[in-house]
Specification:
Length: 487
């Protein structure tokens, strides 16, 4: 935490000195990396979600096809039974014990060909059980598996929802009518719920995934992982109820399980004409685990790129600062801090071109300290340097902001005065002369300076321009010093 605070404070100090252009590039880069990171994670999320939806949809379809195939197989057994037994034998009580025994053994043999079948029974035209391994003579007219086919002539075969049988076993029953225009009876196979569980056990799921089969009454037939206390109980989920009543055959959705409160992405599929729904779900914590890992890796890479960009920014700023420092040194007089002669030459050439093109007035002031050698000889070069520094400060302070003040060399100074005619430059020169004359330098005697001024003449070049100012300066020297002369 302390390291972060130090980096933040140092960063803010550096940022305050960073060129706006570099700072814009830095933030643009960081923003671009962030957008790429967000886009990458979002795209990965969408792709992974689509992949989960496809996997669960394929699994639900596979289980649905297994169930349909199994009921098709059991229907073949029922077809054999109704085509092999005469409806005349569907009587209770039976009047032909030998024939009753033969049919009972026959249907028992058929039952044994079907894994998980709990029994095969026959019913007459009134849904009275005539042959069964359990209770003969039972009136099944109120049971869904017999009642629905009995009252729906167009139905040849029917599969019931889950119910609790008269032998206290939860099961579903598949029934098929005996041939004929009228309802003359039916054959039925009871399938216990292990029939459904065995299909689920063949499908692999993640540690928090789930596969379930419910009927159209929303009763749970089978589930993986197995929850024995929930089998046969109603699944209270409005989304399942709405799906059953809808025209959709398949949906994918994200929901929280009412059984274990786990958030999952589900595939919910109807098993065509059968009264069953297959539900396959992958838990968010499972399928998002890879994305979380990818997120942290991407976040680390993003932060690393930001840090690298910050280091590049700092390095670039240091290079630019060093470059500016070198540039400043190249144009600045080390002692006085004024522009040096190289810079003055550049400015003068630019201003001469501007005056020539636009007709602006331009003047210069050449200044030379009077008897400066005696200061060095009497007080030493250190005091002489201090005098030069103070003169430079006076010239800078009392010149206009638009004037360019520089050290021409030794004890000579030059001031370039833009948009200034001869009268104006002479007036300024006299102000500067008086400031120097009245200033208290670190020496006993007063110091003065001589001034030569001149203004731009059409087609002047820098040499001619400076030469006139220099000649005016020498004229001031010859005429007694501490004066301003015009060249």
């Amino acid at each position: 935490m302390v390291w972060f605070k130090m980096m933040f404070v140092k960063g803010m100090q550096i940022t305050g000195n960073v060129q706006p252009k570099l700072l814009r590039y830095f933030f643009l880069f960081c923003f671009s990396v962030l957008i790429f990171f967000i886009s990458h994670i979002y795209t990965s999320y969408i792709n992974e979600k689509a992949s989960v939806a496809e996997r669960t949809a394929n699994s639900s379809l596979l289980i649905s096809e297994w169930i349909k195939g199994a009921f098709t197989a059991s229907d073949y057994v029922l077809r054999d039974i109704v085509s092999s037994i005469s409806v005349a034998q569907l009587k209770y009580p039976s009047t032909e014990p030998v024939e009753f025994d033969r049919i009972s053994k026959y249907i028992e043999a058929k039952k044994n060909t079907l894994p998980n079948a709990s029994g095969v029974g026959l019913n007459d035209s009134h849904c009275i059980v005539t042959h069964t391994p359990s209770i003969v003579g039972f009136d099944a007219s109120h049971r869904e598996w017999c009642n629905v086919p009995m009252h729906n002539p167009q139905l040849e075969t029917y599969v019931s929802n889950i119910f609790l049988s008269n032998i206290n076993e939860m099961m579903v029953i598949q029934s098929r009518k005996f041939p004929g225009n009228d309802f003359t009876g039916l054959a039925a196979i009871g399938l216990n719920l292990d029939f459904f569980s065995k299909w689920l056990n063949q499908v692999s799921i993640d540690s928090h995934g789930v596969i379930a089969i419910v009927d159209h009454n929303r009763l749970l037939l089978a589930r993986k992982p197995f929850l024995p206390d929930k089998i046969g109980k109603e699944i209270k989920a409005s989304v399942i109820n709405n799906f059953i009543q809808s025209e959709n055959n398949h949906i994918s959705l994200s929901s929280t399980s009412p059984l274990d409160n786990e958030q999952r992405l589900y595939s919910v599929r109807k098993v065509d004409d059968l009264p069953f729904i297959v539900i396959v779900g992958e838990a968010n914590q499972d399928w998002l685990a890879g994305l979380y890992k990818q997120f942290f890796i991407s976040a680390f890479i993003t932060l690393l790129l930001w840090l690298m960009a910050w280091q590049v920014l700092r390095h670039s700023q240091q290079l630019l600062a060093h470059e500016r420092e070198l540039e400043q040194l190249s144009i600045t007089d080390k002692l006085t801090g004024l522009y040096n002669r190289h810079k003055l030459d550049d400015v003068l050439n630019i201003e001469l071109k501007r005056s020539k093109r636009f007709g602006h007035s331009l003047s210069v002031i050449m200044i030379d300290l009077d008897h400066f050698k005696s200061v060095n000889d009497t007080y030493g070069h250190q005091i002489g340097d201090q005098v030069l520094i103070e003169v430079a400060q006076l010239l800078k302070t009392h010149s206009r902001e638009t004037d360019i003040v520089g050290r021409w060399g030794g004890e000579e100074f030059l001031i370039i005065c833009t948009n200034t005619n001869t009268d104006g430059v002479k007036y300024l020169a006299n102000i500067l002369r008086e400031q120097i004359e009245t200033h208290n330098f670190p020496i006993k005697e007063r110091k003065t300076a001589s001034f030569g001024v001149t203004s731009y003449i059409q087609d002047d070049n820098s040499h001619a321009f400076i030469l006139r100012a220099d000649e005016a300066l020498y004229k001031a020297k010859d005429n007694g010093r501490n004066r301003v002369e015009i060249g």
